[in-house]
Automatic annotation (TrEMBL):
A GO molecular-function descriptor: N-acetylglucosaminyldiphosphoundecaprenol N-acetyl-beta-D-mannosaminyltransferase activity
PANTHER family on file: PTHR34136, UDP-N-ACETYL-D-MANNOSAMINURONIC ACID TRANSFERASE (PTHR34136:SF1)
NCBIfam families attached to this UniProt entry: wecG_tagA_cpsF
InterPro entries reported for this sequence: WecG_TagA_CpsF (IPR004629)
Lineage: Bacteria, Pseudomonadati, Pseudomonadota, Gammaproteobacteria, Pseudomonadales
This protein's name: N-acetyl-mannosamine transferase
EC numbers: 2.4.1.187
Gene field: tagA
């Protein structure tokens, strides 16, 4: 909390600004010592409560940007007024366009080769370095080191981590800021949307806050169980947070 402005909820200090403000911040940081940005959604908030590695990664991130139109009204009810929901998919496309227009370089960790081919066709001016670690890499120190070695060996303006939460956040937090510059972004499946391999929900569904339904129907085997789990866990987490704030207000 600063100057009466509440930015914290669920143990996370949220970025309150707009996408344009964030893009300006990223542009100003490209040649500075390495930092990274995370994009919390409902699933991340649920994981954050129990996962110490994710907690550490979030706390050392430069910005924590609300990615979810379901999370944003919960934040608002807790007094956290974000100006704009900035989805990782939208932010990724904005940065890809910027990189293509300005001849920037990107290191991409994760994503299949077929999607990298599509990405290069869509954004031909981007200088792209790609490495896709094997499944379960985050639990194998030698595989994690291969990722870090690739990141250090390929200087770039941006690093996209596309290996899913909490793996991408953990990896992003392991990069030594004294060894490189640039801005990292944890993007999940955003490359799939950027290349058209997965279709975004129609705009009306996004505005109606039911993009999650479109995604679940598009990938039922992967997402149904996760969304059910998140739905049953976020309510008690939210109620606990709200109760704690009310108790604090009564004391004050």
């Amino acid at each position: 909390m600063s100057n009466g402005v509440v930015s914290q909820a669920f143990g996370i200090d949220f970025f309150l600004g707009t996408k344009d403000e964030l893009l300006k911040h990223i542009s100003a940081s490209l040649k500075k010592p390495y930092t990274y940005i995370v994009t919390p959604n409902i699933d991340h908030v649920v994981q954050f409560q129990e996962n110490e590695n994710l907690q550490k990664a979030y706390r050392t991130a430069d910005k924590r940007v609300c990615d979810s139109r379901i999370l944003s009204p919960l934040l608002k009810s807790l007094g956290v007024e974000i100006k704009e929901v900035i989805t990782g998919s939208d932010l990724t496309v904005s940065l890809l366009k910027k990189a293509d227009q300005e001849d920037l370089s990107i290191t991409l960790i994760g994503s299949e080769e077929k999607d990298v081919v599509k990405l290069k066709a869509l954004y031909p001016r981007i200088r792209l370095n790609h490495y896709n670690p094997p499944m379960g890499f985050i639990n194998k120190p030698d595989e994690v080191q291969k990722c870090l070695d690739f990141i250090y060996a390929n200087p770039s303006d941006l690093i996209f981590y596309a290996v899913g939460a909490p793996r991408q956040e953990m990896l992003a937090s392991m990069v030594d800021a004294t060894k490189r510059t640039g801005v990292g972004l944890c993007i999940g499946a955003s490359i799939l949307f950027a290349t058209g391999s997965l279709k975004r929900a129609p705009v009306w569904m996004q505005k109606a806050r039911i993009e999650w339904l479109h995604r679940m129907l598009s990938e039922p085997q992967r997402l149904v169980r996760r969304y059910v789990h998140d739905a049953t866990h976020i309510l008690p987490i939210y109620l606990k947070e709200r109760s704690g704030r009310r108790s604090s207000e009564e004391v004050n």
